[in-house]
Amino acid sequence: MNNFQTLLDGLRLPVLASPMFLVSNPAMVIAQCTSGIIGSFPVLNARPQEELAVWLQRIADALQADRAAGGNPAPYAVNLVIRANSDRFEADLETCVAHRVPIVITSLGDPTRVAERVHAYGGLVLHDVTSARHARRALAGGADGLILVCAGAGGHAGALSPFALVNEVRRFFNGPIVLGGAISEGRSILAAQVLGADLVYMGTRFIATRESAAVDEYKAMLVQSTASDIVYTPHFSGIPANYLRPSIVNAGLDPDDLPVVDTAAVRAAGDRQKRWKDIWGAGQGVGGIDNVPPVAELVDRLETEYRAAQEDVGRRLCASALAQGTPT
Ligand SMILES: Cc1cc2nc3c(=O)[nH]c(=O)nc-3n(C[C@H](O)[C@H](O)[C@H](O)COP(=O)(O)O)c2cc1C
Predict the structure, then answer these.
(1) Which residues make Cβ contacts (< 8 Å) with residue 21, sequence separation at least 6?
(2) Which helix (H) or strand (E) is 145 found in, with range?
(3) Could you say which of 170, 189, 214 is where a domain stops?
(4) How many whole angstroms from 19 Cα to the centroid of ligand 1?
């Protein structure tokens, strides 16, 4: 796993399906990996903590069975939110190390200790950031690659345009970059590569799949919504995040007049988990969601769109070269 290029070469599409609280489950991760893209889930979805080992074993067994049947599954990733002095964090880290999780996605905090443990068995650490300052800190802490969570991403999102952040980070980092934020279609995957990313981080689009743990009403709301239905607010978790406006209305709140809360107190109280249940997270890429297919069918569609975009761009480049009289 140390060779990131080998990892990329083995994928059907340069996609990492991002970890989503209360949404990602083993069935979705297995379907993503066996479809040829990297699947992932946040450790906190496996509850109680002992359940994490059960999930990891289930995923490893399914991927092994796929390999034995002639498949070429992508590796999977697990998201660990770094919280110093948390019992659950220590136990989760030990469980990931024991199962040699191929890719660990770290968020918040300093990844140094996680990176040491994961590198010891040859795993890869990707740290998720929303600014160049955090990117530098993550690299100093031993992260192998960066996930740039840009404006419009579902859940906790940055406020920077991908054009700004990718270019800034590429000035000092040549390694693996995963780009996230409102990417729901095959053409956007190609656009992210043109911008300088190696992989895309795609979350919201996968909530509306058969395997996801989201309730049917949530999936239906995604199909009906467009980018203007997304509200960016720190109100519910203490950190700015994107949510579906109708879910806020259904909870009896006015999305345009949310009561002022003490965001530090919300974070400290840790009532984020309860809130996420009623208020549904989603990114600005919702406008590209028009159905709730099985994961495998969605990945087929993304590949078709991606190949069509490649051909279209190829044609445009040829036409412009011809117009300039450049030999093609
Ligand atoms: C409902 C929901 C829950 C999320 N939960 C997590 C999480 O637990 N950990 C995490 O690192 N990111 C989480 N995210 C953020 C995603 O990992 C990723 O940054 C985002 O989905 C990418 O943008 P997109 O949704 O526009 O594709 C969540 C996103 C959504 C929509």
Answers:
(1) 42, 44, 45, 155, 273, 276, 281
(2) strand 145-149
(3) 214
(4) 6
pLDDT at 94 over 80: yes
d(CA 204, CA 224): 13
- Residue-level pLDDT at 30: 98
Range of the domain at 229: 217-278
**pLDDT per residue over 223-248, tens digit each?**
999 999 999 999 888 889 999 999 99
Q: Quickly state the pLDDT bin for 1 (edges 50, 70, 90).
A: very low
Count of Cβ atoms closer than 10 Å to residue 221 Cβ? 23
- pTM flag (> 0.90): yes
Residues 75 and 187 reside in one and the same domain: yes
For residue 326, the CA-to-ligand 1 centroid distance in Å is 44
User: Same domain for 195 and 273?
Assistant: no
Averaged pLDDT for residues 26-49: 97
Task: List pocket residues of ligand 1, CB cut-off 6 Å.
Answer: 18-21, 23, 42, 79, 107, 128, 149, 153-155, 180-183, 201-204, 281-283, 285
Residue 277 pLDDT: 72
Quick: pLDDT tens for 250-288: 999 999 998 777 766 666 665 554 555 789 999 999 999
For residue 286, report the distance from its CA to the centre of ligand 1, in Å. Answer: 13
**Measured distance CA(4)–CA(12) in Å, rounded:** 15
Judgement on whether residues 253 and 182 belong to the same structural domain of the protein: no
- pLDDT at position 29 over 90: yes
- Residue 289 forms part of a structural domain: no
What is the rounded distance in angstroms from the CA atom of residue 182 to the CA atom of residue 204?
8
For residue 48, whether the previous peptide bond is cis, meaning omega lies within 30 degrees of 0, is yes
- Compute φ and ψ for 209, nearest 5 degrees: -130, 160
Phi, psi of 253 (to 5 degrees): -110, 155
Compute the distance from residue 325 Cα to the ligand 1 centre, in Å.
Answer: 46
